[in-house]
Automatic annotation (TrEMBL):
<dbReference type="Pfam" id="PF07308">
    <property type="entry name" value="DUF1456"/>
</dbReference>
<dbReference type="InterPro" id="IPR009921">
    <property type="entry name" value="YehS-like"/>
</dbReference>
<protein>
    <submittedName>
        <fullName>Uncharacterized protein</fullName>
    </submittedName>
</protein>
Length: 81
């Protein structure tokens, strides 16, 4: 399973639109445009397909934590405790 597959499955499972994903990434100061995001959701053989890197997925997951739980009181991203 690729990072693109994980991102697609999370988008469907959480009923997220592309603009919401962009806002979630902005929570961790990770900038991505709508066209870049659209390229991640294309089929692998499409000419505009772009593989999702580890950094983008990691930042999305960290932003999703903030989006769902709210920011941590000390302003840092929470690690496993």
């Amino acid at each position: 399973m690729t990072n693109n597959d994980i991102l697609k499955k999370l988008r469907v499972a959480l009923h997220l639109r592309n603009d919401e994903i962009i806002k979630i990434l902005a929570l961790v100061d990770f900038k991505v445009t709508a066209s870049e995001l659209g390229a991640l959701f294309r089929k692998e053989g499409h000419e505009n397909y772009k593989p999702c890197g580890d950094q983008l997925l990691r930042n999305f997951l960290n932003g999703l934590i903030i989006h769902m739980r709210g920011p941590s009181p000390d302003g840092k991203i929470r690690d496993e405790e």
